[in-house]
Structures are given as structure tokens and as C-alpha cells.
Write a structure and sequence with these properties.
It contains seven helices and no strands. By secondary structure, the chain is an all-alpha fold.
Length: 152
């Protein structure tokens, strides 16, 4: 890979990281605004741990989006030393997506229904990344750019 190609790839991933982070943060803050609205007593009775699961997953997603935004800015500056942070954030997002798809069906605890109800609402901001398969190719592209450009 040429140095110029590595720089273009890194900047492209940086732009996509910033877009994904912005969309994810907008979505998550909108869901938090909606979440703060009063809910019915039947909803609370049907999903007793919904609030706790929602807040944990919401916080985890916001942390990942902020990490993506930070890494995106660094990639635009051609600083590849944050590639491990980027890979970790994407790995956490993939894990959250897997939990969202399966909804906690792997185990039979009292909170399974709450997990199934809360995770899709708190992590749907990840959808924009999955539309372009970002978690599958972006970490590899950044790692290849890191190998070409070195620490910096």
C-alpha cells in the first residue's frame, strides 16, 4: 500500500467515524429525552429492570460514539496511534449489536425481557454503521494504514 493511499483510507475512515458518532449521539440523546418522559405502570411492571439496562447500554453506546469521534478527528490529522482505541470501540459496538439481536436469550434470568426491550432502543444508533458494514472493514483498514504510516 502506498503512503498516499494509506492517508486517504485513514481520512476516509475518520470522516465515516465522525458521521457515525454524530448520528449515534443524536439518536441516543433523542432516546434519552423520550426515556425521561413518564411511562405507564404496566410497562414498569412488565419490564422491571428496563430502566437499569437501558441506562447501562445507553451509557456504553455514548462512550463508544465519543471514542469514535475522538479517533475520527485523530485519523483526519493522520494520527494513527489511537488505532487500538478505535478497534476497542468497534469491538464493543459489535458486542452490543450481538446482544441487541439476541436480546439476552442466551440466559434465563429475571431480566431477560428487560434486556430484550432495552437494548434495541439504546443501541439502534449503531444501525448507520452496519449499513456500510463499518465494523467489519474499518478496523482492518486502520490497522493497515497504521502499518504503512507507523506511529504518529
Amino acid at each position: 500500500m502506498q503512503t498516499r493511499t494509506a492517508q486517504l483510507i485513514l481520512r476516509g475512515v475518520g470522516v465515516l467515524s465522525l458521521v457515525a458518532a454524530a448520528v449515534g449521539l443524536l439518536y441516543n440523546f433523542e432516546t434519552m429525552r423520550t426515556f425521561q418522559a413518564p411511562t405507564s405502570a404496566t410497562h414498569a411492571a412488565e419490564f422491571p429492570q428496563f430502566r437499569n439496562v437501558f441506562l447501562i447500554m445507553w451509557s456504553l453506546c455514548v462512550l463508544c460514539y465519543l471514542t469514535l469521534a475522538f479517533c475520527g478527528i485523530q485519523f483526519l490529522r493522520l494520527k494513527v496511534s489511537v488505532w487500538r482505541w478505535f478497534a476497542a470501540a468497534v469491538a464493543i459496538e459489535v458486542t452490543v449489536s450481538v446482544v441487541a439481536v439476541f436480546g439476552g436469550s442466551w440466559f434465563d434470568l429475571g431480566i431477560t425481557k428487560s434486556i430484550a426491550a432495552a437494548v434495541p432502543e439504546s443501541s439502534a444508533g449503531l444501525t448507520i454503521q452496519w449499513l456500510v458494514l463499518f465494523p467489519l472493514w474499518a478496523p482492518l483498514a486502520v490497522w493497515l494504514a497504521y502499518r504503512r504510516l507507523g506511529v504518529g
